[in-house]
């Protein structure tokens, strides 16, 4: 019997279904934020002023991070896909990341890094909003309290994961549609690419130095502490509610 993920992959690979995101990912960040659901991908505007997250994340960091770093992921993803067969070019960002094993060898690493970079950052920009000490509410708050005992218990666990990422990567709060879990990924790997698990990002901390170096230099712990002030809990709650519906 096929697992749910295998079934999703099978559907995604059926001719004519390649541009349709799997149901559990619909409403995800990729299509709307990428500005185009398939190749050639575009960098969507940030959606708020560069200085909107001051003093926690500075304007210059946001400008360079969005325009230059995220911009480069989009550009390099398009360069890689320019050499790909049409069947691959027709795949959405979600489908590329769910089917990395189907990407031709000569562009697989470039697609993994740059589609992952585009996916992760498209999500990240939406997740950021000054919250003035706000906390999650509703079903997400209940799930966080149940899983981690308390909001502060959750903060401690996610912060710890973020600080333990060696080199560049991400720390995440993900769900499989039922339970919550904290995980990390190296480089620009996306949680949705994990072959044997369904992991939908609800919260993600970018701990690449490009996310904090200008303001915090090497002090990742200070950046992670500041990050709690810029989580858009309404967006995280929306994603969690959508993930529960499957
Ligand atoms: Fe980044």
Detailed description of the structure:
With 246 residues, the protein is mainly alpha-helical. The chain folds into two domains: 4-44 and 58-127, Helix Hairpins (Orthogonal Bundle); 138-245, 3-Layer(bab) Sandwich (minor pseudopilin epsh fold), CATH 3.55.40. Helix content is 49%, strand content 9%. It has helices at residues 4-12, 29-34, 59-81, 86-89, 93-98, 105-127, 138-148, 151-164, 213-216, 220-227, 233-245; strands at residues 169-175, 180-186, 200-206. Strands 2-1-3 form a three-stranded antiparallel beta sheet. Strand 1 (169-175) and strand 2 (180-186) form a beta hairpin. The longest helix is centred in the first third of the chain and has 23 residues, at 59-81. Fe (ii) ion binds at residues 65, 69, 121, 206, 208, 210-211.
Q: Kindly, what is the distance between the CA atoms of the first and last residues, rounded to a whole number of angstroms?
A: 20 Å
The order of strands across the largest sheet is: 2-1-3
Uncertain spans: 7-24, 26-36
The overall number of domains is 2
The percent range for strand residues is 5-15%
Report the biggest beta sheet as strand number plus sense, adding barrel if it closes. Answer: 3 strands, antiparallel
CATH architecture of the largest domain: Orthogonal Bundle
How much helicity do the residues have? 40-55%
Cofactors and ligands = fe (ii) ion
Q: What is the CATH fold-level name of the largest domain?
A: Helix Hairpins
Q: Given the C-alpha coordinates, what overall shape results?
A: globular
CATH superfamily membership of the largest domain, which one?
Fe,Mn superoxide dismutase (SOD) domain
């Amino acid at each position: 019997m096929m697992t749910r993920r295998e079934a999703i992959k099978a559907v995604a690979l059926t001719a004519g279904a390649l541009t349709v995101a799997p149901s559990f990912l619909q409403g995800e960040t990729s299509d709307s934020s990428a500005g185009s659901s398939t190749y050639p991908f575009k960098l969507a505007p940030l959606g708020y002023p560069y200085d909107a997250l001051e003093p926690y994340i500075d304007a210059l960091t946001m400008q360079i991070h969005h325009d230059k770093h995220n911009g480069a992921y989009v550009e390099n993803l398009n360069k890689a896909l320019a050499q790909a067969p049409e069947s691959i070019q027709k795949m959405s960002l979600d489908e590329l990341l769910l089917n990395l094993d189907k990407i031709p060898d000569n562009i697989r690493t470039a697609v993994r890094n740059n589609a992952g970079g585009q996916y992760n950052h498209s999500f990240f920009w939406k997740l950021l909003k000054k919250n003035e000490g706000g906390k999650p509410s509703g079903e997400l708050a209940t799930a966080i309290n149940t899983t981690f005992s308390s909001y502060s218990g959750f903060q401690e666990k996610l912060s710890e994961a973020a600080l333990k990422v060696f080199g560049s990567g991400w720390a995440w709060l993900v769900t499989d549609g039922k339970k919550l879990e904290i995980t990390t990924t190296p480089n620009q790997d996306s949680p949705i690419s994990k072959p044997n698990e369904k992991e939908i990002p609800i919260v993600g901390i970018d701990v690449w130095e490009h996310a904090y170096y200008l303001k915090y230099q090497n002090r990742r712990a200070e950046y992670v502490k500041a990050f709690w002030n810029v989580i858009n809990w309404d967006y995280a709650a929306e994603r969690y509610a959508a993930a529960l519906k499957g």
